[in-house]
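In response to the reviewer comment on reproducibility (Comment 2.3), we provide here a single inverse folding case reported in full, input and output, so that an independent group could reproduce the run without further information from us. The structure tokens appear first.
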């Protein structure tokens, strides 16, 4: 797997494709990916193939052909990509302040008291505190 600093950011459409692939947690064919994507909206097969090739070029996927089908293998796992996106977002929007991010989410009612309690329990668990 790639190191965090080597992972490029993805345009929304390519990220949408990767989410489908990550969610399935298995090697998928082009037609299987298309079928999953079409649960939300219609996809043109040639456009999908172009985007899958871009994902290969960016180092997110590898592929192999078996019979008439092309299958795709994940080279960048979802957690690595999310770590990159989250770090960039935290830096860009909240000056690397997790406290500012949580306060903003709470003040805008995007998270609840229960969410804060869950976060506090997570922090206690990770730092060895009592729960």
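Designed residues, in position order:
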């Amino acid at each position: 797997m790639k190191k965090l600093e080597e992972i490029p950011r993805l345009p929304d459409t390519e990220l949408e494709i990767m989410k489908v692939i990550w969610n399935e947690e298995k090697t998928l064919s082009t037609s299987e990916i298309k079928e999953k994507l079409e649960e939300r909206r219609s996809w043109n097969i040639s456009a999908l193939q172009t985007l899958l090739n871009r994902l290969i070029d960016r180092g997110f996927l590898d592929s192999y052909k078996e019979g008439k089908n092309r299958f795709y293998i994940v080279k960048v796992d979802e957690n690595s990509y999310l770590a990159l996106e989250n770090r960039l977002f935290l830096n860009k929007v909240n000056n690397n302040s997790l406290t500012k991010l949580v306060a903003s989410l709470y003040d805008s009612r995007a998270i609840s008291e229960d969410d804060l309690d869950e976060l506090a329990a997570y922090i206690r668990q990770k730092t060895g505190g009592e729960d």
